[in-house]
Design goal:
By secondary structure, the chain is α+β, with helices and mostly antiparallel strands. The protein contains 10 helices and 7 strands.
Length: 246
């Protein structure tokens, strides 16, 4: 599969250098996580903004990147995932685990990794639209996925902007500390109308080979239909999470 960014009339005839830059941008998106902005990607790769914007647009056009729903950032695209799929398979194919979980619940199921103190969505539910993905990644105090990250990977910088999304968002540091302590004690993060009215979620940790929390499996659904503390649902999440190493 060729990386179709070599376009002399658009890249000024510097194809090898352009390919290197394009690959660096892809690596930066993978490292920064879904929702990384063009400015963040340019800074992370020491690329002039104009060059970064041009290459990002080419990568989107060729399917290696996608713009997230609100157009404020980028995520890895289908063709990049296809390239990753050509690599030797891991011991556990998490896609099978996630597909099994989806077949057993009517809610949206998502797999996220925690990389560099950021949320990175590895698997989005194709049958359930996830709005506010950028906010989920940047304001981690307001979602089940993000609170599980905070509980296990404390980062003071993440707590400098406790934005209030709804009247239910926890924005008091003392209250948030109590919430994070509860999450650590139960290995369960919940969300009820905190990032968006009418949306609830539950998230349980996924661990690496050394037992460290490296990500989570989450279900997201409509408040009133999804009970984040439903024992059957939580048990299903824990069973699935135990089959995955990230």
């Amino acid at each position: 599969m060729a990386l179709r960014t070599a376009r002399p009339h658009e890249l000024g005839g510097h194809e090898p250098r352009a390919v290197q830059k394009a690959l660096a941008l892809l690596e930066a998106v993978a490292r920064l996580g879904s929702g990384a902005t063009a400015k963040e990607i340019a800074h992370a790769t020491s690329t002039p903004p104009a060059t970064a914007y041009r290459l990002l647009n080419l990568l989107v056009a060729d399917g290696f990147l996608v713009r997230i729903d609100d157009l404020s950032g980028f995520a890895l695209g289908r063709r990049t995932r296809e390239l990753a799929g050509a690599a030797p398979a891991a011991d556990v194919d998490y896609s099978e685990v996630i597909d099994d979980l989806r077949s057993g619940t009517r809610f949206g199921v998502y797999l996220a990794a925690y990389t560099g103190g950021r949320v990175r969505l590895l698997d989005r539910d194709p049958d359930h639209e996830l709005t506010g993905e950028t906010a989920l990644a940047t304001h981690v105090h307001a979602s089940a996925i993000g609170k599980l990250l905070l509980a296990n990977h404390p980062d003071g910088d993440a707590l400098t902007d406790l934005r209030r999304f709804t009247s239910h968002t926890i924005v008091d540091l003392a209250d948030l500390a109590i919430e994070l302590s509860r999450i650590r004690a139960t290995d369960l993060a919940t969300e009820r109308d905190e990032m968006k009215m009418g949306r609830s979620a539950a998230a349980v940790p996924v661990r690496d080979a050394d037992g460290r929390v490296s990500g989570c499996i989450a279900v997201i659904g409509r408040t009133g239909r999804l009970d984040p503390e439903d024992p059957t649902l939580v048990g299903l999440l824990r069973s699935s999470a135990s089959r995955i190493n990230l």
